[in-house]
Amino acid sequence: MVTIYENDGEMKNKKGVTIYDIAQELKVSPSTVSRALKDHFSISKEMIKEVKKVAQKRGYRPNSIAASLRNNRTNNIGVIISWINRPFVSSLISGIEEEANKAGYNVIISQSHDSFDNEVANARALYDSRISGLVVSLAMETQSYDHFNPFIQNNIPVVFVDRVADEFNSDKVVIDNFAAAYMATEHLIEQGCQRIALACGSQYRNIYRERESGYLAALREYNIPIKDEYIVHSDSLNAQEGFRIAEYFLSMETPPDAIFSVNDTAAVSFIQYAKEKGIKIPEELAVIGFNNDPVSLIIDPQLSTVSHPAIEMGKLAAQQVLKQSQYKDVVKSEAIMLRTELLVRASTKRK
Amino acid sequence: MVTIYENDGEMKNKKGVTIYDIAQELKVSPSTVSRALKDHFSISKEMIKEVKKVAQKRGYRPNSIAASLRNNRTNNIGVIISWINRPFVSSLISGIEEEANKAGYNVIISQSHDSFDNEVANARALYDSRISGLVVSLAMETQSYDHFNPFIQNNIPVVFVDRVADEFNSDKVVIDNFAAAYMATEHLIEQGCQRIALACGSQYRNIYRERESGYLAALREYNIPIKDEYIVHSDSLNAQEGFRIAEYFLSMETPPDAIFSVNDTAAVSFIQYAKEKGIKIPEELAVIGFNNDPVSLIIDPQLSTVSHPAIEMGKLAAQQVLKQSQYKDVVKSEAIMLRTELLVRASTKRK
DNA sequence: AAAAATTACGCAATCGATTGTGTAATCTGC
DNA sequence: GCAGATTACACAATCGATTGCGTAATTTTT
What we know:
Structural class of chain A: alpha/beta
CATH topology of the largest domain in chain A: Rossmann fold
CATH class of the largest domain in chain A: Alpha Beta
CATH superfamily of the largest domain in chain A: Response regulator
Radius of gyration of chain A: 27 Å
Mean pLDDT of chain A: 92
Strand order of the largest sheet of chain A: 3-2-4-5-6-12
Largest interface: A-B, 74 and 73 residues
Order of helices and strands of chain A: EHHHHEHEHEHEEHEHEHEHEHEHEE
Helix content of chain A: 40-55%
Shape of chain A: elongated
Largest sheet of chain A: 6 strands, parallel
Number of helices of chain A: 13
Distance between the termini of chain A: 62 Å
Oligomer: homodimer
C-alpha cells in the first residue's frame, strides 16, 4: 500500500510571493505595498486597488514570521493544560481557541500530564517561540512558579484558569469551588444523608483545597460530625483509583451513606462498584460528582454533579490574555469568578 | 475580587537578551556566539564554554522567530481536526503532540467543527504562520481539497489521518475500516442476529463509506438479505441523532435485532433508548459501536465496540510529517494502515 | 625556515515585513 | 502666481539569528 510520485520539477521550491515581488511588478516600493495591503491612509485608493489585485493574482500570503520578528510579537497564544483528553479540559481549549481565532490568533497547546517537569519544559518552549500570551491550568505537582517569571518580566500576559496559583500575581479565571462544594454537600444533607464521605484531590491545588473547605463548612453548618476516615485524598482521581477508594469506603464497619467526589470519573467508579456489590443507589449510597462530564449522563443511575462553565472559562481566559497583550503599560490583574450549577440527578434523589 | 498592581518600572520593557548582547560582553562577534551555542566545530572549546556561561548567566533564550525567518521554517506543526472534545480526537492529538515535542516541535491546533469553511480558514491561517507540516483529519463537509495546494506547492508536508482524501496524493494514516466493520457485523451474525441495522455517517468521508462496505460484505457473505430501511445515514451521529435513529428503528414493524453503529456516541443512545422502552439488551437488541470511547465502559450493559489505536495514529502522523519535512527532494507518499481490535462486551453477548 | 595547512574567528548579506523620516508632486488659499 | 499645506510615495533601518566567505594567527609539513 505504498505509492510513489516524483517531483513536478518546475513547481517545487518556488519560494512564496513576497511584497518585494509585488512591488517589482508594479514598479513601486515594498513599503507602499505593505501599506496598501493594510489600507494605510497615505496610499491612494487606486494604488491600494492595484496592489491588492496583483497580490490576489500572484497568490500572495503574508509571512507572519517576518511580521512577528519585526513587531516582536506573534499571533500565537500558548496553552498549558494537564491532559487534553479530559472533557473539561478539551472544552476549555475549545473556548480559548474560539476566542483566539476570532481575534486572528492561533493556539499552541501543550500537555503537562500533571508533571511539574513537563510544565517547566513546555513553558520554556512556548517562551522561546515568542507566544504573545499564555493560558495555564496548573499541573497537579506544581508548587513553584518560577518558570512563569520570564513571561512576566517580558510583559507577556499569563492567565491562570481553574487550577490557579494563589501566590502568583496574575489574571485568573476560576469558579467558586467553595460554594459549589458547599451546595453539593448541603444537597446530600437535605436528602437525608448523615455519613457523607469526600473523595478529594491533591491539596497543592486550589480547586481541591477549596472544595474540601466547602464540604467541611457544610458539615459544620448542619452540625454533622466530621470524620477523618471519611475523607480520602488521591493524586489522580482516575477510574482505577475510584474503585480502590470505593472499596475502602464500602468495606468500613460503618460505611458512608453518601460520597461527594471532586470529579465525575471517580464518582462513576463509585456507582459501578456499588452496583457490583448490590448496594442500592441512591437509597443506600448517594453519589455526587463534579464537572458534568458526558459520562454523568450515561451512567445508570445518572450522576448528580456540579456543572463547570468550561467553554466560557476558556473564552474569558483568552479574552484576558488578548486584552493584556494590548495594553502593555498599565497592568491590572484581576480574578474572574464564574458561577457553577448544581445538577440533581438520580444518583442522589432520595426524596 | 479585583486586585491591582502597578509596574515595577525598571523591570518592564527590558528586551530579551540576544546573541548581540552576549557578543558585546565577550567582545566577540555575534556569529561566533551563534556558532558557539550550537557547538560548531570551528569554535574553540574554551570559547564555547565562555559563551554558554554568559548565556546562562544572562538568561539568554533563543528567539526562534528570528531563526524561523532566516531558515524559512518554523518548529510548529499544524493540526486540523473536527472537534477536540471527542475522545478519539483528543487521543490523536496526544499522540501527535508527544511525538512532535520529542523532536522539539510545538503543535498548533485548530478545529473545523466539521465545517468546510472553517477548515479552509484554518488551513490558510496555518499556512500564513509558516508551519513546517500539517496533520489533517477532514471535516465532515469537505469535498474539495484545493485549500491544501499551497502547502504542497511549497513543499510543506500534509499528512491525513483517519478521515483522509483518497483523491489527494499525500501521506495517510488510517485503519482498515472495511475489515473492522466486517468483523463487527460478522460478530453480530455469529451471535445469531438476523436483522442487522447500520447507523452510518456521511458518505463523503472514507471512514463511513468503508465501514458501510464492510457491513454489506459481511451480510452478503452470510447470505443475509440487505434491507435499505435498515441503513440510516446521518451527518452528525451525536446523542440526539442517536435517539432519533433509535426511535426510527425500534418503531418499525419488523425492527432490527441488532444495530451496528459507526460510533459509540450513537450506540450508547441506542442502548439508553432501548432500556427506556424495556427492550432487553442484548437478547432483543444487540448493539455494537466503534471507537472504544470511555462511555462504552460506563453504559450498562457495557458496549461492544471496535478499538481505534488513536494515540498510535497520532504518533505515526507526526512522524510522517517530521520525516517529510526533512527530505525535501524525493517525495514518497505512503499510506499506513493500522489494525483495529474487536472488543466483545455485554451489549452483544447473546451466547 | 619557508610553504602549506589548520584553527578560530569576523564581516556582511540574508530572511520578509514594518515604519519613521524624507521628498517630490500636486493642490489650496489669497 | 507663490508660499504653505497636503498628497502619495520612496529610502533605509530594524527585528535576531544564520551562514558563506574571508583572513589573521598558529601549527604542521618538508
